[in-house]
Amino acid sequence: MTSFPIYSVAKVLVRYLPGFMYRHYYTPQRMADLVYCDVLPRGESVQLDLGPVASAQIFLQLINLSPVPIELNSAQMAMQCSGAKIDFVHVSPCVTIPSGMAAQLRLCTSVHEGSSSAIIENHHIPLKAWLTGHMEFSCNVRKFSKALSLSDIQPVLINAHLRKEERHA
Q1: Does the reported pTM lie above 0.85?
Q2: Which of 121, 140, 153, 155 is in the most buried spot, having the most CB atoms within 10 Å?
Q3: Distance CA 129, CA 83 (A)
Q4: Cα 66 to the chain's mean position, in Å?
Q5: Contact 68, 99 (CB under 8 A)
Q6: Taking CA 143 as the corner, what is the angle to CA 137 and CA 147, rounded to the nearest 5 degrees?
Q7: How far is Cα 47 from Cα 59, in angstroms, rounded to an integer?
């Protein structure tokens, strides 16, 4: 009869039991709820450069409140501003966020001519924007996704006077 030392059985349980317990307790929805995402609170976190080559950029803050490190695999965002839709896509490289820490993500894209003209035409109205999106995360417990919806974002217009002068010329 062969006997197994308790130490070897305990070693196997310690290795596999936490992962099993984490997967059981941390459902995809619970993991998504433990990731906080918002635009950076200070400075110019949403910028619309309406110069000759129009572009937009957003600085997002991601806070990992889960007990395990997570990786942001992809992010797809759409911003609605003055009747114009601006799409942002982030696919690589992966952003790793340790447990209990925050990371900053910068998303940049070009703005179409029609969208930048629509923003300038409605510039006399107080400029507000809405950001919706979808993010894919992975960690050693499971893969999960998070939907994002932010409102009352105030973008900063850069070089808007150049576009206005171009329209009036």
Answers
A1: no
A2: 155
A3: 9
A4: 16
A5: yes
A6: 50
A7: 9
- What is the C-alpha separation between 34 and 148, in angstroms, rounded? 13
Cα Rg for the chain, rounded, in angstroms? 22
> Each residue's pLDDT tens digit in the chain (169 positions)?
555 565 555 455 445 556 667 777 788 899 899 999 998 876 678 899 988 889 999 999 999 998 889 999 999 999 998 888 999 998 877 889 998 999 999 999 999 988 888 888 877 677 788 999 999 999 888 899 999 999 888 888 888 777 665 555 5
Say how many residues make up the chain: 169
Report the alpha-carbon distance of residue 49 to residue 30 in Å, rounded.
37
Residue whose pair of structure tokens reads 């039991």 in the numeric block: 17
Largest CA distance in the chain: 96
* CA 121 – CA 83 distance, rounded (Å): 10
Neighbours of 92 (CB within 10 A): 7
